[in-house]
Amino acid sequence: MHDIRKHKQAHLFLNNVLIAQGIYFTTTSAPYIVYRTGSRIELNCSVDAFPNRNGSYIMWTKGGARVLNGSRIYVNTNNTLIISNALLPDTGSYKCSALAGGQTISTTTQLTVNDVPGKPRYVVLFNKMKESVNVYWTFTHGQDHNSPILAYRIEYRSNHNQTIRVQNVTHPMANNATVKLSPWGQYVFRVAGINTVGVVPYNAPKGLRVEGSGRYPNRLFVSWMALPGEEQNAPGIGYMLYYKLDSDRFYTNLNVSNVNSYFINNLLRERYYDIYIQPYNNLGIGLRTTTIVRGFTSEAPPRSPPVNFRTTEIEANSIAVRWDGIPQNFIEGTLRGYTLRIWDVRAPGRSTNYTVGPNTLTYVFYGLMPYTVYEIEAFGRSRSSGRSYSARIVVRTRSSKPDPVMQLAAGAISTGNVVAANWVRPARANGIIIGYSLNITYTLTGRAYQYYGSYLLPGNVHHFSLSRVPRGTYVFTVSAENAAGFGPSRRAQAYASGDDYAPYNYLAKAVSNSRIEISWLVVKNPIRFEVRLREARNDSVWYKYGANIPGTARQITLDGIDGTKNYYVRMVSILNTGRNPLESSPTPQALAAMSSFEENLPPFNRAWFVILFVMGVILALILVYMIYRQFRSGPVQEPPKETHRAPRPPPQQQPLGQKELLLMMIVFFVLLQFNRVNQLIWAPLLIDDVCERRLIDIFGY
Known about the structure:
Elements: E1 18-20, E2 23-28, E3 32-36, E4 41-43, E5 45-49, E6 57-62, E7 65-66, E8 73-75, E9 81-83, E10 92-100, E11 103-114, E12 122-126, E13 132-138, E14 149-158, E15 165-169, E16 176-180, E17 187-195, E18 206-211, E19 220-225, E20 238-245, E21 252-255, E22 261-264, E23 272-281, E24 284-285, E25 293-296, E26 310-314, E27 318-322, E28 337-344, E29 352-356, E30 362-366, E31 373-381, E32 390-396, E33 406-413, E34 418-424, E35 435-443, E36 450-458, E37 463-466, E38 472-482, E39 485-486, E40 490-496, E41 504-512, E42 515-521, E43 528-535, E44 543-544, E45 549-550, E46 555-559, E47 567-574, E48 590-592, H1 606-633, H2 658-675, H3 678-682, H4 689-699
């Protein structure tokens, strides 16, 4: 066998003849071969069999697994294993097995694919002095890229001078070194490993773009971002450009020197080409671009963005956009459609693309988050993968009702007569939280809940408490509010042992249209009780009513109440005497509905009311007319008697007399008494709740 290390070529054809019972190898590869990443490798294996030369079968395996044909690794018709664009994982033991006439022979080749060392895992500075610093680094297993590290290279520069200085560390096992510096400077450090392959740029060029042209259909324009000086690692920087038809297996390479763009000419029209870039310097070839970019000849991206790109409708979960297309003189080739890209400004790297046809000029984005700022861009799309001009807008979706508050909890604190609730703003506010609605209900028995109170709290308040509350169970219902309204509510309850002096089992009811009856219980008797009233309509002020109720009382009746109004009633216990008496917490307010006693009025009849109302209006008009005629005509004078017969004047209409008017009024009042609606007619003068409702029934306002 030949030793591959004695030859410069990447692969060898060996003419050893190995005879094994009628089958033998005619050519094989060396047992040990070494290649650089990116190389094209051929592993040869051919046999001859006697006497049947056409009956042999050859199979390639790696690590016991059969090698299957793919786009990069395959076996050709000559049984040669070909590896194009070799990678580090291609390292391994490759076995060629030949079978003929029931007999098998095999040969093995150990392939090593290596490269320059990778980046150190850590680079740390310590013992920072005025004129020196210790640099510490760590290379982990596998970062030598299948070639032992022989030395290290420390590169650094200061803010005073951008020139890169180099300090070599020749010991292969070293992991730190002291670097001499000048005082009063800021320094940037980098560490590179050196192995048998060399030290070359670690980073691949970025920003690779490929564009075709409708005006030059046989060429592609390729551009990229050149490596900065601190990443070149050695003089002689340049770039290798690789390209091939998308259907081909092999790349054609061009040395384009130290530039950042290049025209590839003499290509086929309207075909796709795959392209990548690889830098090099005087010490070797660096890393290739991580992605292969595809270009299309005869077409270029549109040279103008969509015109008048705008929003037409904005909702909480959707945005509708519209545009006017790209002018034809800015389209090189054929416009394939439009691409719309949208992303949340808080996460610009997480965009979503949507594509539409060339004749579509509207689109609606659904499933968006409420009250969120989005950026949207649109650009024309061709078969070329180059950059296109885009139009961009920034828009915020509308608010929607907030989610329920989070972590709502309620409990009794202190001595048991204080209840409190805490909560956290909704996970999704869907807008600006402007406040919270808090409703509290109360029960002692656990059955019938009484309304305790409602509160509107600012958006920055997440706590509420009630002190000196009566014994019972309190239910807190909280919902958040933004510009779209109140969101769903959440509930939490707490039991309070209560203030012993606070009334409980409190009940207030109207027993007539002028009397309210109140009953209650307490654990301990206070000095006295006070009753407080508030009109149910448009009144938020509580008035004292019955301020000297004995502390031993458990029931009281309030007389002389205005029966035309409804009242809210509550009680407090007074615990001491003086100008500023100490009060217990008030009871929940109870509604005493005085209007529930309107059944004492006569039954209502709409038809009779309308008839009598019209008759009253007619009588009033007649009375006014009579008075007017009386004052205008004056006293009646008799004409002088004629001695001769004269023609009789035509009869004149006489005004109604007092008797007729009196008769009509009597009839009106008889009908009024007959229907017993006299109270109904005069009731509106009282302006109470009952009459207001009846007037609404009659007139509709």
